[in-house]
Amino acid sequence: MADLSPLPYVPSGRPQVDRVLRLLEGRPGKVADLGSGDGRIVCAVATQGFRADGYELNPFLLGYSRLLAHRKGLASLARFHRRDLFKADLKQYSNIVIYGEPVILRRLEQKLAEEVTSGSRVICCRYKLPTWAPTTTLGEGIETIYVYDKV
Fold this sequence. Notes:
- This protein has one domain (16-149): Rossmann fold (3-Layer(aba) Sandwich).
- The chain has a seven-stranded mixed beta sheet with strand order 3-2-1-4-5-7-6, with helices on one face.
- Helices cover 30% and strands 19% of the residues.
- Helix 1 (14-24) packs across helix 2.
- With 151 residues, it is an alpha/beta fold.
- InterPro entries: FAM173A/B, SAM-dependent_MTases_sf.
């Protein structure tokens, strides 16, 4: 199925989730969360009315995410897929959130360059893309978020 094994699970802290929500405020389009973990970002953006898709390889986290969305009444807006994020079609998303380890970001950067459309926003939590210059940086330390706006 996937050419990568699941990366370690590191949940986003509340400050990070709040910053992501603030960065998406007033933006149009769908949201993708690459490496969606326990689904907290996908569910948070769905509560703001976004249609959001989480991509996660870990079947236990995937099951938890789906249960969380169902319990919060968000199943129609928050969907989760067990799919290698490198096989996801990113062209359909105006907003992409990534909590990826540096080991995958170099490869992912190429995919983003090919698929992210003009007007889209890429939000990286904790680690920045290796060669892209962020438009904005929020927070510090492990709570840092790097924002890339494609023009």
